[in-house]
Amino acid sequence: MEPLAFVEVLGRHGELVARHPVWRWPSRIGRGYDMDIILDDPFVAAGHLEIGQAADGRFAVLDLQSRNGMYVLPSNEQRKSAEVGPEDVVRIGHTQLQIRPRSYTVPAELQIRGTATRRGPVPFVIAAAVLLAAVIWSAFVTTSQREENPVIAFSALFIILAGAVWISVWSLVSRTIGGRANFSAHGFVACAGLLALEIWSTSIEYFSFGFDARWLETAGIAGGAALFAYMLYRHLRLTSRARARALGFTAALASALVFGGVVAIKDLTETTNQASQRYSKGLKAPYFVMVAGLTPADFLAGGERLKRRVDAMVNADP
Amino acid sequence: MRTILCVAAAALCLPASAQEPNVSSQARSLFEQTRESVAQIRVLLGSSDSHSATGTGFVVGSEGLILTNYHVVADKALEPDVYRLEFVLPDGRSGPLQIVAIDVLNDLAVVKGDTGGVQALTFRDRPLAKGDKGFSLGHPLSQGLTVVEGIYNGRSEDQYYERIHFTGAINAGMSGGPVVDSAAKVFGVNVATHRRGQLVSFLVPARFARDLLVRARAQTAAPPADFRSDVGVQLKAHDRALMDALLKAPLPVQVLGRFVVPARMGGFMQCGAGTERETSKSYDIDSYHCYTLSSLYVDPRLHTGMVSFRHRIMRNLQLDALRFAHLQETRFKQGRHGDYASRKHHTRYACQDRIVALQGTRAKTAMCVRRYQRFEGLYDVVLKVATLGDPALALQSELEMEGVSFDHAMELSRRYLEAIRWNR
Fold first, then answer.
1. What Å distances lie between residue B212 and A259, B230, B242, B292, B394, CA to CA?
2. Which of A142, A207, A310, A315 is the best mutation test for B, with the most CBs of B within 10 A?
3. Alpha carbon distance B250, A84 (integer Å)
4. CA B305-B350-B246 angle, 5° bins
5. Residues A87-124, buried b or exposed e (16+ Cβ, 10 A)?
6. Are A145 and B281 within 8 A, CB to CB?
7. B349-403: per-residue pLDDT in tens?
8. Residue B299, min C-alpha distance to chain A (Å)
9. Which of chain B's residues have a Cβ under 8 Å away from the Cβ of A134?
10. Which residue of B has its CA nearest to A213?
11. Chain A to chain B, count of Cβ pairs less than 8 Å apart?
């Protein structure tokens, strides 16, 4: 004897939790042991729902006068009875169900993507080495005395430790959720991502200085957030099999929160007047300057704008 | 232990003073002549009996006028609803005080209370000579009315506003107390001490006190409860006088190596220099600074009224261009330390920065402006310049103006930028 259909119990995020075969029409669902399908949800009545066949491969569902009733998603309105298709979700108590016939057609299988080399250790090691070199170089540029050499060692040590923690956490999460740690792949994503961020922020510094263009700094923050979001997205792809769009959205949101949060906290924690002096502090070697420069008079003419800005900041009654 | 020592000292001293009656008789007789006119001034918080500050004042008129320092009564002048003023006379009488007139620039205030019957002190007309004795009265650190003998040493040579240099132990709490000559005539008012000095104290000359008293007596309208607008007007007068003095002559310049830079302005700026030339360093930095010693006390958290500038000549000895540039960057970021923002006093800074073509070099130039919350038309302006002419040599220069009108600030900034030159 073959099952007529399947009742699928879904978890909070729509994932499949259990699948029960339906052997006869009508079938009854509830907490009681005389039911055809027994649910353990304490918010479900002993006899809660009856399901039967309707036309066109659809199903008729009927509330057996339970205390908590029956709801059909996504409209989430309470119904005494309804006709549902294989994509509709019915909620009784705290349990979500969907009913699918044997004839339900599933989509084609996903293509396994990513070649073995990209997930292997070689790209990871190369990216890590280049990142380390970049970090050491940028630390070197910020020192001016031999006594400051430990600064370089510390920044190298810091990136190694922080990177190891970051990659390990992602691997652990991958292992827990997806069953595979993907250590090397996470390592590559992390190192390549940080390297891209480092290159990006350094180039923005030099371009905004050389072309005397402050808007580049704002664009630089937005670009940095985008790069970071993409890095998170790649990590998430290695971790979860959820839809790409959902992962992309999660990554973008997380990145926006991190970058927005940092900018906002900087804004709020401005406790010294020094900190409220927000001018572009970047100063590079003279040969990066690409503009002729304003005349002093033109520069000072911009002072009027500053005056208007601070005049507008005055409290009505401090 | 302390008590025993005092008793022992008294026992030793008494026979000596009995033999030489003149040793301290001058201070003693002056103290006795003037003590009844010297009051302690207390600033009380709200309706409480607890004082947030104390100072000294002296009776200068039969109508109950008392002279003291502005900084003693500043809290009451600016926030009359939060503070109360009270005087306590040596005979134990006390009562409330009202502010009648203030002089922020000379740190003086005239207050009024019910001091009926107390004899007023009078002012000395003739100048003193260096070395003359003076006797300062006041309530140092709430130790009771105290007399301190000291020496008149002429005008303080570094301060913008005229102050008498008095060599004597003036301490906190004596502010606003009279300093009298040997005929019990007031020639100065206790106002400040030098932070790094020993017994180097400053007095406001009596003539400013007399002027303020004349103004207070000529006032027909009742004095305002809140002196905010009066303070604002006086700060503007300070800005006008100081900036006119700085701007009246063409900006003086000096040559520092290959740079021509602004030099000591107005003839009254104080200047100094310093250097960082340690052998292990791969660079050296010489710095030169000048400032007007014209800081005005407005309230406990707000001092203003100074103009200063600083030049740094940075020489690269063995760094590559990128590292030397970064060194310049760290210095370009620096500002004054410990300068905590109080939104009560200032707005935030608004800044702009651009690359500006100066004479002989391009320079990264930043300007930051903030306004005073309570005083309209007054600004703090900071101008910063960092030359971009040579990977091995740079000038960084910074001009700071506190409590200035915007137009004055722009004019001095323009002259400052136009004066900087790199001789190739």
1. 58, 14, 20, 24, 50
2. A310
3. 90
4. 30
5. ebbbbbbebbbbbbbeeeeeeeeeeeeeeeeebeeebb
6. yes
7. 899 999 999 999 999 999 999 999 999 999 999 999 999 989 899 999 999 999 9
8. 14
9. none
10. B354
11. 176
| Whether residue B188 is found in the same domain as residue B94 | yes
User: What is d(CA A180, CA A134) in angstroms, rounded to the nearest whole number?
Assistant: 30
Closest residue in B to A302 (Cα) is: B352
Q: Cβ of B343 and A318 within 8 Å?
A: yes
CB contact under 8 A, A270 and B341: yes
Q: Which pairing describes strands A49-53 and A27-30: parallel, antiparallel, or unpaired?
A: antiparallel
Residue of B nearest to A314 (CA): B373
Asked whether the predicted pLDDT for residue A87 surpasses 60, the reply is: yes
Give the pLDDT of residue A116. Answer: 54
CATH of A5-101, one of 2.60.200.20, 3.40.50.2000, 3.10.100.10, 1.10.238.10: 2.60.200.20
What is the rounded distance in angstroms from the CA atom of residue A213 to the CA atom of residue A197? 20
Residue A266 has a pLDDT of 83
Judged by CB atoms closer than 8 Å, whether chains meet at B388 and A276 is answered as no
Q: Please name the amino acid found at residue A42.
A: P
pLDDT digits (tens, 9 = 90+) for A21-64: 999 999 999 999 999 999 999 999 999 999 999 888 899 999 99
Q: What is the spatial distance between Cα A233 and Cα A252, in angstroms, rounded to a whole number?
A: 8
* Domain ranges (residues) in chain A: 5-101, 116-272+280-288
For residue B109, the SS3 value is strand
With contacts defined as CB-CB under 8 Å, which chain B residues touch A297? 414
Question: Does A278 sit within 8 Å of B369, measured CB to CB?
Answer: no
Q: What are the phi and psi torsion angles at A170 (to 5°)?
A: -60, -40
Q: Same structural domain for residues B216 and B298?
A: no
